[in-house]
Specification:
This protein is mainly alpha-helical and 115 residues long. The chain contains five helices and two strands. The chain has a two-stranded antiparallel sheet with strand order 1-2. A hairpin with an 8-residue loop joins strand 1 and strand 2. The chain starts with 6 loop residues before the first helix and ends with a helix.
Amino acid sequence: MPVVQDDLSQVFFALADPTRRAILARLAHGDATVNELAEPLPMSQQAVSKHLKVLEQAQLISRTRTAQSRPCVLETGRLDEAVEWVARHRQVWADRHDRLEQHLSNLRSASEGTP
């Protein structure tokens, strides 16, 4: 696993894997133990635990202690930060796209007007 330094990079690294996204989607419906999370996945409990470690390092989940189980809990704060980052940059990209579209339109108009 590559070393990821900043918080946002850790979040996007964690979200890059479909298994981890599936785990987060399951946790959006409520807390779950490792066994409950591993049950529908086509991998061992040990492999799921490795994915949970990545999610925990990215602070996308936490583990609580209830009697003898340690349910995983979705932590939405880091997801909110990622959504805010995407929204800010989406506007920048949309503005650039609009300027490019206008520039290309101007070029087409200029070439159509040239004999």
